[in-house]
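Write out the 3D structure for:
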Amino acid sequence: MAKAARKSRPRVVKTVKALREALADWRKKKAPIALVPTMGALHSGHISLVALAKKSAKKVVVSIFVNPTQFGPNEDFSRYPRTIEADLDKLTAAGADLVFMPDPKEIYPDGFSTMLKPTGPAAVGLDDKFRPGHFDGVATVVAKLFTSVMPDIAIFGNKDYQQLQVIKTMARDLHLPVKVIGAPIVREKDGLALSSRNVYLSPSERAAAPVLHQVLKASAKAIAAGEDPETVLNRGRAKVVSAGFKLDYFEARDAGTLAKLTPQQARPKLRLLIAAKIGKTRLIDNLAV
């Protein structure tokens, strides 16, 4: 039996000029374009985004860029995993059409002085409280990717739920002609959300990590059954801390605006969001109620 032909690697471009030249032919053919922005160190969660992009558009662009402006001074920019060859192998298998892999100087050239400063869901006391300036960097780099690629669709994972709401709001407010889609979280069998940072976990930390999803599930069930949200959250917070985590937050928020709940308002659709550190690794997760 003849062997199946190996897929060729997607074309890699490193400048906005080369990117736009590569996209020009697709635009002439009116091929819908989907963008999947990543910071590399790709795992099955990222590949699920590429698969959704392929179902949603004719052509798929994946960006790989570890964005320095979204890391704080004491965060893990320098040690963030970089696995370019493995990433390209995975994107080849997934059928990506083009990879945009710029250097930092391409995105932030000498003299760069324009940063976005989003509010709304970027200023609600969740990740923004613990990572000041993070969403300024996220909004700025995503806006640059949107205006460089001009995709019809952009796919982001729901794991970074606050980020997703920030990007949706930015695209709406700036009239950017892109449909932003949130994709389901991909999890390990024990419930741990896939993340490039999971490689930092020691064996004992990895064994404890699924407690975040366990607490989310139990809390969502209890709130849906009518228990007082704050009572449920306090119970969950105690369980997370007892498992060895340093908790940043565990909150129930309006699923759209991420605003805090008030006793007077009718119960909106809720999203439970959690962020906690175990050892040196910070994990986030969320779940709809």
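Residues 196-288 form a domain with the Pantoate--beta-alanine Ligase; Chain: A,domain 2 fold (CATH 3.30.1300.10).
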